[in-house]
Structures are given as C-alpha cells and as structure tokens.
Amino acid sequence: MAAITMKNIVKTYGDGFQAVKDINLEIADGEFMILVGPSGCGKSTLLRMIVGLEDISGGEMLIGDERVNEKAPRDRNLAMVFQNYALYPHLTVFENIAFPLRLAKTPDAEVKERVNHAAELLELTEHLERKPANLSGGQRQRVAMGRAIVRNAQAFLFDEPLSNLDAKLRGQMRTEISRLQKRLGITTVYVTHDQVEAMTLGDRVAVLRAGVLQQVDSPRRLYQNPANLFVAGFIGSPPMNFIPATVTDDGLSTPFGDIQLPPGRSVDLSGKEIVLLGARPESFEDADVVSDTVREHGMVFDAQIDVIEWLGNEQYAYVPYEAPEQIRQQLADLERELDSEAMRTQLVVSLDASSQIEESSTASVWMDLRQVHVFDPGTGENLTAEPAPVSDETAEGQPA
Amino acid sequence: MEREQTARQKSLWWVAGVIVIVYALFPVAWIVSLSFKRASDLSSREFLPTTWTWDNYDLILRGDFQDLFLSALRNSIGITLIATFIAVVLSTFCAYAIARLDFPGKKLILTTALAVSIFPVISIVTPLFNLWRNIGLYDTWPGLIIPYLSLTLPLSIWTLSAFFRQIPWELEQAAQVDGATTWQAFRRVIVPLATPGVFTTAIISFFIAWNDFVYGISLTSTEAARPVPAALAFFTGASQFEQPAGAISAAAVIVTIPVVILVVLFQRRIVAGLTQGAVKG
Amino acid sequence: MTATPAAAGKLQVEKTAPPPTSDRARSERRLGWLLAGPAFVVMLLVTAYPIAQAFYESLFKYRLTDPDARAFNGLGNYAVVLTDSVWWQAVGVTVLITAITVAVEAVIGFALALVMHRAITTLRPVLRTAILIPYAIITVVSAFAWLYAFDLQTGFVNSWFSWLPAISEETNWFGGFGTSVTVIIMSEIWKTTPFISLLLLAGLAQVPEDLQEAAKVDGATWWQRMYKVTIPNMKAAIMVALLFRTLDAFRIFDNVFIMTQGSQNTEVVSFLAYRQTIGRLEIGLGSAVSVLLFLCVVLISVAFIKLFRVDLSSARGGN
C-alpha cells in the first residue's frame, strides 16, 4: 500500500490534443479518492496514466516514493477493475481470480488459499468453476474485484466499475466496494461520472473539467463550498439553481425581487454589473411552513409554480422565469458541459412534504440567503467560497 | 419473429427443414450410391444399386486406377495443407496488425484482399502457365502452392481480420496490470482467444484450396503434382469416350469424406467464419 | 521476402508521417507493416503480377509451339477476339448462366435463410451442416454427380421424371444447348446457393426483432413485413451476397469443363481462355481473353458499387 502523488501531470496526444492539463494531486495512503467529471474530462486518461496503460507526456507520477513514469504496468503492482470487467473468457472464475498469482508463479497451495479467501469475501465460492460468460453482471463485477484483491497490490484503481449494472445492483455494489475498501484499508482511486458514487464512496473527490482539476475536497465541502460554477452545477441533484442578479447600489436585483446579502455572504461586488446567485433547491421553502425566527434570514417572493413533483418525503416545484439573453446563453453552455440539456430558465425548488402549494398557482416561496453563493459569471469563480483549510490532514498524505 | 409458434407453424417449419436437408444431400447421396454400384448396374438408370459392392473402391485403391488416384490424393493433401498453412501463418500476422495496430495502409491491404478475391482465376493461369514452364515450376508442388495462395490468402486476411477485431484487446492491458509481460499477456490471454478464429480460417482456406480445379488442370501434366479434382477428369474407361463412372464416383466420395467430417464437426464455426468475412455479424 | 516489406513499410512511414509523431506511434507503424507486409506482398505477387504479365503477353502474336514467330502485335489480339463470334457467343452464354443462376439463387437462398432463421433450435445444427455440404464439396465432384444423374447411360432422372411431357427415357440432356445449359445451371445453383443463404441469414439476424413487432402492431401482413421491413433492412447483406455470387458465377469453369467441354455451344469465357492457352497454346490470344475476362469482372464490380451503392467496406466488416 502506498500513497500516489501526481506532479504537473500532462497528457498530450499525437494530434496535439491535451487530455490532461497540469494536474497536481496527492492521494494519501489508504485514502479513497474519486475522480469525477463529465465524459471527456480526462478522468479515465488520468487513471490509465497511474496504472501505466497510457504514456505520461509530462510531469511526474510517484507511487510510494518511487517515480513510476517509465515503469511497465506490471512493475507498478496496482490492481485495476475495468469498466467492462475485462474478464478472460477462456478461464474459469477461479483462474480469472488466480491469474495475477499465476503470473507471479505463486505456489499452488497459496493460490488456492488466497483465491478461496477472496471468493468467500465476495460470495463467489459456488461459482468458481464457471466461465465468465455464464455469470450475471453483478457476479462478473465481483470476479473483477476478486482479481484485484487477491494480490497485495499497492492500490486499487476502478474505472467506472458500476456503469454497466442496473440501478439496484449499482447501489448494492457501491456499498460492497465501500465496505471492502474500509476493511482492506487500501489506497483507492475510483473514476466515475456518477455523482452519487462520488459523494458516497470517496474520502475526497477530485472534480475534473476538460483536463483541468477544478477542486479537490471532501464530498461535504464540495457540496457546501464549491469553488466555481462548474463544480457547483456538477455536484448535487437536482442541481444548484443559478439566478442572474444585477448589482445595484444597495444590493442585488433578481427576477424575484431585490435582495440584500447577509453579513456572512457579503462580498465585494464593486465593478461588477451582473452576478449569478447559486442556491440549492433545499435553500428554498414554502413560506407558510417557515417559522418566523428563520424567516428573517431569507427573502420571501411570489413564484409562479409550473409543475410539482411529489416524492413522498419531499416535493420539487418548478418555477420558470425570464433571464437576460446573455445569461441564458451562458447557463445553456454550462448545462451542455455538464452533459445535460438546458430546457429553460427555471428554478427547481424543494418544498416540505406537508406544503399545500399547488401546480399552476402563484405561491409564496422563501429563499434562505445564508446558503446563497455568488458567482462571477465571467470567470465562474465562487466569490463566497471559503478558502480551503490550510492544513488538511488527508491531503498531506503521510504514509502510515 | 414470433417467439411462440403454434403447433401447425412448428410442423410447417419442420417440413421446410426436411426439404432443405433433402435438397442439400440428395446429389451427395446419389454419388455415394453410384460408387457402390457394380459395373453392370451403372446403366440401370436406378437411383440405388441392386447389389452393393466395394468394387469401385477396390479399383481406385488397388486396381487399375491406383497409380492415378493415390498419387493425386497425395498431391491434393500435401499441396492443400501447405498452401493453407502458409496462408494462415501470413494472414495471422497481417490480420493481427490490422486489428491491433495503427498504421497507414490498413485500408489498402483490406481493399486489395477484397479485389484479389474477385480475380478470375483463369486470368492468372494464362501467364503462370507460360512462366512456370520457363522457370521449371510447371507440374511441381510449389507450382500449385504459389497460385493457391491467391485463393487462400485474401480470404484468410479478410476472415481473420474480422475475427481479430472482435477480440477484446483491452484484456491484454488487463493482463499487464495483473502483472504479465507483453509476451505473457499475448501467450496466456490473446492466443487462447485467437485460436478459434485461426482454426476456422484454416478450415475455410482448406476448402477453397481442396476445391481448386483450374490451377490443377492447367499447371500440371503428370502424376507428379496433379491433384484429385484434375485427376478425375483424366480417368478413362475401356473406350476413350466412356468415363468409368463407378471409379470416378468412388474417388469423388473419398475426397468428399474429409470435407464432410470438417463440416459436421465445425459447422457452427464455419458459418461464423464465412459470414464474418462477408457481412458484419 | 522479409526484407522487402520492411523496406516498403519504412518508405510508407516516411512519406505519411507528420514530423512530430512519438516513437511509439512510429514503431507501431513499422511493426504494422512488418507483420502485414509479407501477406500483402505475396498476395500482390500471386495476382497483380500475373495480370500485368497477361496484359503484356496479350500484346504479342505468340504461339508456344512456334516461339520464333513471336512478334509485337499491339492491340491486334484484342481486335481478333472482339471481332470473333466465338468470343461473343461465350460472353452470351456466360451472361445467361450468370443471370439465371444469381436470380434463382437469390430466391432459393432467401428461402433457405428464412427456414434456417426460423427453424427450431434442435433442427438448426442439422440444417447448418446439411447446407454447408454443397458449399464445401468439390465443384468437380458436384459436377460429376449432376452429370451422371442426367446422363443417358447412368442417369436416373429420365426414368424418374418420364411422366413429365418434356422428358422421356431417351432424352439426351447433353445433346442440345438448352438442356445442357439447364443442367449446368442446376448444378451451379445447387452448389453455390448455400453461400448466398448463409450471407442472407447473417443479414436476417441483423434485422432487429422489435421492428418486426412494431410492423405487426401497425397491422402489416407477413408479406408486407417481408417487403417493407425485413428486406429493406438487410439490403446491404443482399447486395454483397449478389455481388459476390455474380462475380463468382461469371467465372464459371469447372461445371462446364466436366459436363460438356464446351460442346453444344456451351463454351463460357473462362473455358475459352483455357482452351486458347492450355489447349491450343495460343499464349497471345489466350492472354487477351484473360485480360478481357478480368475487365468484365472489374466492370461488374464497378457497376454494382456505383449502381447499387454497395458499401463493401461497411458490409464486409471493415471500419
């Protein structure tokens, strides 16, 4: 087991395309690190550079304290679970799991013992003599994991391992992976585009966009303190609402009324004409159910409710509004980058399950200003972001 | 189409299936029957022999036609196997490169293979006939093996490329991550996966070379190299105008046996190979 | 032989490689040509070279029995061939045989494919095996089987089918043009329909099942589903199968050689070329016929590809 350190890692393809741009990332020994981002952001390329399947065009990759740039995959002693599992179709489950041990010329008795142990851990014991073609998706997934855990690798690498499974199985396997990683305490790098996986599995999450590292932080801090528009929009479902606001002398003017930012959120807006306010759906509430003491921390406005989705434990209301053309364009661009379709400018508002607001009505909605973020629409920077803590103990990556 | 067929539909497809089988096997049954007829039976104009006899087989394996047939059989087997082997070895390297590596000219190779596979054989025979006489390859094994490559190589390249494209090559990478050297990854993962395709291609190549008649009859003149299909045309009976139908049938049956065995054993693979080479399936 | 392709590969690389390619990419190109080169070169040597040689020889008046009289003749041989009725007769017969075989095979082949596609699983391997036998059997063997079946002395066909008005015990099938060609065509159809049907079967398998179901829901009858859904969706497979069979049928030789030796005006183009070169040792004239046959084949391919827009690269598994 070892820490993984990336220093100024660059990947340039033959045609000059830069898939990964100057990435610095330290993954501590035993840490579970998620690489997340929309498709084409370079996360898989980065993972393949760690494992050695992709040449490193620039920078330095350290595993433990050893530079591995020039090492062949087999000399890096990493275990990887591929997106489509990469099981050897001509070998039985047992031999698939045993494959790395066989290559290392491990004595038969030990192979047997370790494979059986791994199979037990993954509940594969009764399938050991079958061929991969006869297994279900979840079983194949577990065989792939068995092959990874059977040897004492320095780290586990996962390349979107759950993307071929159906939703229910994905949930189960997610828990399984999490449990296994905690039990084995092994450094893990996990690539995904699924933010639920990103949020639930990782100790820390690295968000990538077009080959550039956007932010590395714990899931909670990513959610509460996104560094920029991209991270804010990418993390969270339904996504954060972005409301255009014009800077006025005494505050901000939004399509829902004028607001004054509370002291905790006030930022220097001098020289700016327009900003984007970011508010998560749960920052809103039916004004009728908000207690008076809380109400004063936000603003109340009348909203045209278009559609309501009732989910039992909560409900989502959709509030369309008009935005200036320039802002609308920018929001559409952002949506496209986040792999989703920009339908129209609308707020997604989470309401208490007991709220009586009806569809196609005008309702009084409260917005919590204490949790509002202010973004610079030009740079995308989150003006209200708290600076990252100076000494984050996980980020230092001292080997235990 | 319909998943559940009614009993009537089911029996209809059964009947259709039986018709197809009769259609496919009837001429074969006829030549087999003919090969077991006695000389006096040959002009009985009946489908089946009145008495079954091994006479015709005796004739070609031990009797008058022994020299003609056995040498032809030896030539056919030797030449076909060598031509198949060379084609498969060359095309395995070629198809590996096409399926696995990125280099300019892939398309050129595949297009050429396709173009070559539609070449009229007779157009190649004419110049070879003259050339072979000049350089002493006429009526020799190499003199047939070389032109046979024009039949087997393009087909092998096509078929194998299609097979190799389907190999999940990322397994090679997985093996490398699992600790394999490049050679180990090839040997322990790729070879087992590629073998069925190579094997199937070899069978199809064998069929093509085994079937050849044009080269066999044009580029040989004696028993030194003449293969069976060409030799069959040289069987002559008591009078010059009368072909010994019984002996020819027996010889035909003998050269059909390996074909039938291969088909029965590997029918599924052969179909896959034929259609993969032609239509993406 | 290994030195040549390596050199050729290098040349190719230097010509096409843009300056900033990584060592890995360059070595991959080298390796690619190193592996593919031998097969490519051998393939060219055994085909392109003879064709070129044939073209060269077709320009000479040259008879093997009289080598001293060899003389450059320009396109004279072509003039001789193209003005001779024997050539046009052979072309006519070849076209006739090709057209009828391919048309009939398309229909029978499609029927066979349907039967195999729909046959219940237990019957399928048996059907596959049965259908592969005609494909794999030696053409000469098949020709003999058909020859003896129809032959006046050995055949059973006359006695079996004498109840048909056109057939009697004494019908001499190989005594006239029409009947000879009929038997030749029948044997050719029997032998090569399996190939077409296997290609069509692969095409059938590619038509998505839900299209059929959608058409059924939309109220299409079985025939309508065939014509409006199945066949349009396997057009690529059909065109490729037809092209390959057409080219193959146009080169017909073995059947004719065994059954009639070209008598009763059944001479086909391949046989004419064979007779000129091997039989009469007229290298010049034979080469001209060979080159013309080659041109015919090229013409047919071009016509197919242009007229029907057969996309060979996509249909033949090439990306």
Automatic annotation (TrEMBL), chain A:
Superkingdom: Bacteria
Region (Disordered): 377-400
Keywords for this protein: ATP-binding, Cell membrane, Membrane, Nucleotide-binding, Translocase, Transport
One of the record's GO cellular component terms: ATP-binding cassette (ABC) transporter complex, substrate-binding subunit-containing
InterPro entries on file: AAA+_ATPase, ABC_transporter-like_ATP-bd, ABC_transporter-like_CS, ABC_transpr_MalK-like, ABC_transpr_MalK/UgpC-like, Mo/tungstate-bd_C_term_dom, NA-bd_OB-fold, OB_MalK-like
GO annotation terms (biological process): carbohydrate transport
Keyword Ligase attached: no
Domain ABC transporter, chain residue ranges per copy: 4-235
Keyword ATP-binding: yes
GO molecular function: ABC-type transporter activity; ATP binding; ATP hydrolysis activity
Pfam families given in the database record: ABC_tran (PF00005), OB_MalK (PF17912)
Name of this protein: sn-glycerol-3-phosphate ABC transporter ATP-binding protein UgpC
Gene designation: ugpC
Automatic annotation (TrEMBL), chain B:
Stretches that traverse the bilayer: 12-32, 77-99, 108-132, 144-164, 185-210, 245-266
The UniProt record lists the keyword Transmembrane helix: yes
Pfam families: BPD_transp_1 (PF00528)
Signal peptide interval: none
UniProt subcellular location: Cell membrane
Primary localization class, coarse: membrane
Presence of the UniProt keyword Membrane in the record: yes
Membrane topology label: Multi-pass membrane protein
One of the protein's GO biological processes: transmembrane transport
UniProt keywords, alphabetically: Cell membrane, Membrane, Transmembrane, Transmembrane helix, Transport
GO cellular component: plasma membrane
ABC transmembrane type-1 domain ranges (all copies): 73-266
UniProt xrefs under Gene3D superfamilies: MetI-like
Record family assignment: Belongs to the binding-protein-dependent transport system permease family.
Name by which UniProt lists this protein: Carbohydrate ABC transporter permease
Native source organism of the sequence: Phytoactinopolyspora halotolerans
